[in-house]
Amino acid sequence: MTDRRLSHLNAAFAELRSHIPRFPYEKRLSKIDTLRLALAYIEFLDGLAHTNLTVHEYIAHSPKWSHSELVSSM
């Protein structure tokens, strides 16, 4: 991969990381962890968008998300 392409890829991951909820004390996420967390966050937002519940109600009624690190960092 060329230096320019690698630089663009790293910038894209940095941008993606900036949109994922995280705890302030967490170290920088690896690329694979960034992708996994982004997928989980998208799944969470998609599920929330298909309900009439508030964020807190959705979390309380969804066992998958009630103990999720992603949700606890929001």
Describe this structure in words.
With 74 residues, the protein is mainly α. It has one domain (3-72): MYOD Basic-Helix-Loop-Helix Domain, subunit B. It has 5 helices and no strands.
What does this entry show, briefly?
With 74 residues, the chain is mainly α. It is 65% helix and 0% strand.
Secondary-structure-derived class: mainly alpha
- Characterize the biggest β-sheet: none
- H-E order: HHHHH
| CATH architecture field | Irregular
Helix percent reads 55-70%
What is the CATH first-level class name? Few Secondary Structures
Give me the number of helical elements.
5
> What is the global morphology?
elongated
* Terminal CA distance: 35 Å
Low-confidence stretches: none
Number of strands: 0
How many domains?
1
Strand content: under 5%
Average pLDDT figure:
84
GO biological process, one term: developmental process
Domain BHLH: 1-45
InterPro entries: bHLH_dom, E-box_TF_Regulators, HLH_DNA-bd_sf
Protein name: BHLH domain-containing protein
